[in-house]
Specification:
This protein has helices spanning about 5-15, 25-30, 35-40, 110-115, 145-155, 165-180, 185-190; strands at about 45, 55-65, 70-80, 95-100, 120-125, 135, 140-145, 160-165. It is globular and about 50 Å long. It has about 190 residues and is α+β, with helices and mostly antiparallel strands. Strand 2 (about 55-65) and strand 3 (about 70-80) form a beta hairpin. The protein starts with 5 loop residues before the first helix and ends with a helix. Helix content is about 30%, strand content about 25%. Strands 1, 2, 3, 4, 5, 6, 7 and 8 form an 8-stranded antiparallel sheet that branches. The chain contains 7 helices and 8 strands.
């Protein structure tokens, strides 16, 4: 079996796994399309859609993490649905990212970049009906059984707070893609 030329293969990968709005190797330009200075304010969240969908924010879900001693620490916080909308009615598990209060990140040197959506690992949503501004942490996905989520929604133990607007959803999947689907650096790609 002959190997395809590297440029041809890279072109194929770009076509098969496109990153929404991403000019190849130019993630900054991709995010700039969402900057306030370029398009004005985007209302990223609104009342929930009739059916649950990717990008819905649900309050409050259990999230697990590890402390400095390696012990599991659990907390309850809002989560945003990362699973595709078409998977919500057929997959056994639903993937969520935790939503954190933006003011808890103010001590970070990258805070101003985070709230301008310039940091890949975070998706800044902004003001919510929960009474505070939200940042989605794209580095801590978690899955929960779909049936458990549905049951808790029906019983009112958890509630859908928001759905993303079209622009908010595009920014969400763009940030998700940039965090997880961007190409490796050229040195690593050369070694592959």
């Amino acid at each position: 079996m002959t190997e395809a030329p590297k440029d041809e293969f890279a072109d194929y990968i770009e076509r098969v796994f496109p990153i929404p709005g991403l000019a190849f190797n130019d993630p900054v330009k991709t995010l700039e399309q969402f900057y306030f200075e370029n398009i004005g304010a985007i209302k990223l969240v609104r009342e929930p859609l009739t059916e649950w969908a990717q990008g819905d924010i649900i309050d409050a879900l259990p999230f697990a993490d590890f402390n400095d001693n390696g012990e599991i620490v659990s907390s309850t916080k809002p989560g945003i649905i990362a699973s595709s909308s078409c998977d919500l009615d057929r997959k056994e598990k639903i993937v969520f990212f935790p939503c954190i209060r933006s003011d808890t990140l103010q001590a970070l040197s990258s805070y101003n970049s985070i709230i301008k959506n310039k940091v890949f690992e975070f998706f800044y949503v902004g003001e919510t009906a929960m009474g505070y501004k939200v940042v989605v942490d794209l580095n801590h996905p978690m899955s929960l059984p779909r049936e458990r989520v549905l049951k808790n929604l029906e019983l009112g133990r958890i509630t859908r707070k928001h759905s993303l607007t079209r622009e908010g959803w595009y920014l969400f999947i763009t940030k998700f893609s940039m965090n997880y689907l961007r190409a490796d650096d050229s040195d690593t790609m050369e070694k592959r």
